[in-house]
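Q: I have 269 residues here and want to know how they pack in 3D. Can you give me a structure?
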Amino acid sequence: MKGGVATSMLSHAILRPRAAELAAPLPEVMRLLRYREGRTRVTARDLALLARGIALAREAAAPAVSLAYCAVAVEGDRVRTGVPGIGWRSRSLARLLAGADAVTLVAATLGPGVEELTAQLFAREEYALATVVDAAGSALVQGLAEWVRARLYRETAGVDPSGHARSVDPGVSGPDAGAAPGITGGARLTPLYGPGYGDWPIEEQGPLVVLAGGPAIGLTCTPTSYLVPQKSLVGLIGWLPHGGRDLPAAGCTRCTLADCAYRVTAAQR
């Protein structure tokens, strides 16, 4: 099935949270910069630079999210969807979604502002600040993923029982299609998981961007599977039934890439 036809079968919600709502903890930014607690000497000047870089990244960010609810069924190492012709083959994804009957497809971006600012700073030879802004942007992307998951939890708890955008929330447009219809408090969510995690081929990132509604928020994918803008993500969050197993939000606990330099251990969370 053509991507445009498949996308038209799904209802998408567009959300535009404020950058100030997204977490970008100083320890996470420092970790991305390869600071090692107890081993890397951090001066007051370093801390001031870090604070400035995080603040500049927030100012440059224009977060946007597209969500779409999609029914799924797991059969062995295959995940079938309710959209004809759309499915995925991945042992790690099937294991994550065991017991789930639906997912929320997620496309999210900070927009091009952070990477444009980083490029400008490098051009002005402000290398240290540029590097901090880049790391802060990566932390904000993770914060955006956490924001999406928290919002879905709030909706299942009855904060927005109508399933539609509330007039008091200017960050949402269109039907709030990310939440699973009829699911109320007690439902559990998996962490966000996307192509490139475990054995889910990165080549499936492009079609998933389209299916999740990425183009509507300015998010695309190159033929070599790079997201544009760079400070973006695409993936899905599984819906587990009431009383199902609880899974932590940290994606690292579900990823099979054990030698990743950026893996977060339990002690670091």
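Q: Anything worth noting?
A: Residues 127-156 form the longest helix (30 residues). Strands lie at 12-15, 64-75, 78-81, 87-89, 102-109, 172-173, 188-189, 220-221, 227-228, 232-240.
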